[in-house]
Design brief:
Blueprint: E1 4-7, H1 9-14, E2 26-30, H2 31-40, H3 45-62, E3 71-72, E4 78-82, H4 100-114, E5 120-123, H5 127-135, E6 139-141, E7 157-162, H6 164-171, E8 175-176, E9 191-196, E10 203-208, E11 212-215, H7 231-241, E12 247-252, H8 258-272, E13 278-282, H9 299-303, H10 308-317, H11 341-350, E14 354-357, E15 370-374, H12 382-389, E16 397-402, H13 420-428, E17 434-439, H14 446-454
Parallel strand pairs: 1-2, 1-5, 2-4, 5-6, 7-9, 12-16, 12-17, 13-14, 13-15, 15-16
Antiparallel strand pairs: 3-4, 8-11, 9-10, 10-11
Helix pairs in contact: 7-8, 8-10, 12-13
Length: about 450
């Protein structure tokens, strides 16, 4: 049955290509939403970028017909801009009729009353808009096209049991996956924690390489002086160190080691081993009311407050010692000169070896032979996650890290099941050049561990 789907502005901002994801139904764009997009197009950051993307897509639709009359989609539906049905008499007393949300609700209610034979559904990602629509008797839905369907996000590893003889075969070089009894097929680069059925102390952490179950290659390695502490960190370290896996995602709560692991491997791979020519630290800046474009100073100066996690990681990796003058000391045996963290980063930035970026400055770039770390990736929309990955050039390694739980997401356009990090994990897990691990244990401090678990 054909339905009328009315799109709230936030849905279009979340996915500028949402117009094509409603099959053979009628897509209705309130003129108020178009006005809001027009007001947002000049904003810096991801909101302004998505508004401009939506404008380009709507302009492409204009070339196919008249948006007021309606344009046929390839799936058999229609897309049109609704100019009428703005009568406010359907709005209960006490509601502010000057708000754009109220105008969209009025339009939805009037369309519903005027088309009783066709279900009218408001699609919004705004919880308060959904609550008000429910109270008005308007059917409302979230935008589900890019939400992951599973209740549990892929962790990247499984636990199972096997005989000691089979575990010994793994240590000797590899074991055929057919020799294990598993509930589900393994994915490429998925890890296994295998415990012996005849000796509980005999166990192994191994990786499925697409053909066989093999031992970890980097179990005895360290990076920039850092050695993984727990099982999940060892798995993540394996993925980060392997140059044949150019895309890695790591999820985990505060203090689980996501940033310091990724940063340590980046420093090791770029500065020590020369496997890549530079490190690019990228972070979305969604928490501020205005994007960094409104702040004074150079790009690096604007970004400094947002890059605290990277600076902290580098400081900890330098085995820092803070004194009254806030000087830092590099205690490694390589003979490198002493730097403050800021001077360390600035020195390598001047050589083109370290870059700190936000998405505003990433469009149009191709990042080749670089190790790119995207922090707080749970703040991305799926569209921006795709934009970031399409920057990948030859010889690069991309690492997405973040905590995808709802209490760690400041971006109102995404949630725990629709953010770019979990979307990317689920979409990319099937490919042999990708890998993912969810970190569970908090290693920052006993206090951080208690706070993460009980607060």
């Amino acid at each position: 049955m054909v339905k009328n789907y009315i799109l709230d502005t936030n849905v279009i901002i979340h996915d500028p290509y949402c117009f094509y994801n409603f099959e053979d139904n009628n897509i209705i764009l309130p003129i108020v939403a178009i006005e809001e997009l027009d007001n947002l197009k000049s904003r810096e950051g991801m909101v302004g970028y998505h508004a401009r993307m939506a404008a380009r897509e709507l302009n492409n639709l204009r070339e196919r017909g008249n948006l007021e009359e309606g344009i046929k989609t390839d799936a058999g539906g229609t897309i049109r801009i609704e100019m009428n049905h703005m009568d406010m008499s359907c709005i209960p007393f006490g509601i502010d009729t000057n708000k754009n949300d109220t105008r969209i609700l009025a339009m939805a209610k009037n369309l519903q009353n005027g088309n009783m034979d066709i279900p009218t559904i408001l699609v919004t990602k705004d919880v308060y808009m959904a609550i008000k629509a429910d109270s008005f008797g308007i059917e409302v839905q979230d935008y589900h096209n890019d939400k992951i369907k599973s209740d549990e996000v892929y962790t990247g590893y499984v636990s199972t049991y096997a005989s000691s003889d089979k575990i010994n075969l793994i240590y000797k070089g590899g074991l055929s996956v057919d020799m294990l009894e598993l509930n589900e097929p393994l994915l490429p680069n998925q890890f296994l924690h295998i415990i012996s059925t005849d000796d509980n102390n005999h166990r192994v952490v191994a990786r499925f390489d697409g053909n066989n179950i093999i031992p970890l290659k980097y179990a005895k390695n360290s990076a920039w002086g850092l050695t993984p502490i727990n099982m999940e960190q060892k798995m993540a370290f394996e993925l980060l160190m392997d140059k044949d896996i150019p895309f890695v995602t790591i999820t985990g709560g505060a203090g689980s080691g996501k940033t310091i692991l990724a940063t340590a491997v980046a420093l090791e791979k770029v500065i020590e081993q020369g496997d890549y020519s530079k490190i690019v630290f990228v972070r979305p800046t969604v928490a501020a009311g205005n994007d960094i474009g409104y702040l004074p100073g150079t790009e690096e100066e604007k970004l400094r407050p947002w890059m605290g996690s990277f600076y902290d990681a580098i400081g900890n990796l330098m085995d820092v010692k803070i004194n009254g003058s806030e000087s830092f000391r590099h205690n490694r045996s390589s003979g490198k000169p002493e730097f403050s963290v800021d001077n360390f980063i600035e020195t390598y930035r001047m050589k083109g070896i370290i870059e700190t970026k936000t998405f505003t400055y990433m469009r149009g770039r191709t990042l080749s032979n670089a190790m790119v770390i995207v922090d707080e990736a749970q703040e991305l929309t799926p569209h921006l996650a795709k934009l970031m990955l399409t920057r990948a050039g030859f010889g690069s390694k991309f690492v997405f890290i973040g905590d995808p739980t709802d209490n760690q997401i400041d971006n109102v356009l995404v949630d725990a099941k629709s953010n770019g990090l979990v979307y990317t994990v689920e979409k990319m897990k099937q490919f042999p050049i990708t890998g993912h691990v969810a970190l569970k244990q908090v290693e920052r401090s006993p206090l951080a561990g208690i706070a993460e678990k009980y607060m």
